[in-house]
Design a protein that fits this description.
Radius of gyration: 36 Å
Largest sheet: none
Order of helices and strands: HH
Oligomer: single chain
Low-confidence stretches: none
Helix content: 55-70%
Structural class: mainly alpha
Strand content: under 5%
Distance between the termini: 119 Å
Length: 143
C-alpha cells in the first residue's frame, strides 16, 4: 500500500519539510494537500503584494522625477529664449551680422548636469554683453 509514502517530493516544497508519511484516509490526505496549497498561495500573494508596493513606489518616484525634469526643461528653454532675445537686441545695430531665429537645441552634446550648461549659457551671455559695452565705449570716444 502506498498510503505512507510522501505525496509531494521534497524538492517541490520550497525547502519545507513534508512528513514522509501521511496517516489516514484519502480525504485527510486531500485536506492536507489543499491546506499546503492554500498556504503556498497565501505566501505568493503576500510576496506579490510586496512587489506591487515596491514597484508602485518606483513608479511614483519616476513620475515625480519626470515632472521635475519637465519643469526644469521649461525653465531652461525660457532662459535660453530670454538670452537669445537679449543678444538680438545687443547686436541689432550690427548691420553686417545676419540675425536668424533662435536655433533648435543641439541634441548631440554630451550629457552633463544641467547646471553646467546653464552656467555656460550665462557666462557666454555676460562675455557678449561686456564685449558690446567695450565696443560702445570705443565708438563713443572716436565719434
Amino acid at each position: 500500500m502506498i498510503g505512507h509514502a510522501s505525496l509531494v517530493p521534497v524538492q517541490r516544497t520550497s525547502g519545507e519539510l513534508v512528513a514522509r508519511t501521511v496517516p489516514g484516509s484519502a480525504v485527510e490526505r486531500y485536506k492536507e494537500i489543499a491546506r499546503q496549497v492554500d498556504q503556498s498561495l497565501d505566501r505568493m500573494r503576500e510576496h506579490d503584494r510586496e512587489r506591487v508596493r515596491l514597484m508602485v513606489g518606483w513608479l511614483i518616484a519616476s513620475q515625480e522625477r519626470m515632472a521635475e525634469v519637465i519643469g526644469q526643461e521649461r525653465v531652461t528653454r525660457g532662459l535660453a529664449r530670454v538670452h537669445w532675445e537679449a543678444v538680438v537686441e545687443l547686436l541689432w545695430e550690427e548691420r553686417w551680422m545676419k540675425i536668424t531665429p533662435m536655433p533648435a537645441p543641439d541634441e548631440s552634446v554630451p550629457p552633463r548636469p544641467q547646471r553646467e550648461y546653464d552656467e555656460a549659457m550665462d557666462r557666454a551671455y555676460r562675455a557678449l554683453e561686456e564685449a558690446a559695452q567695450k565696443r560702445s565705449l570705443l565708438r563713443r570716444k572716436s565719434a
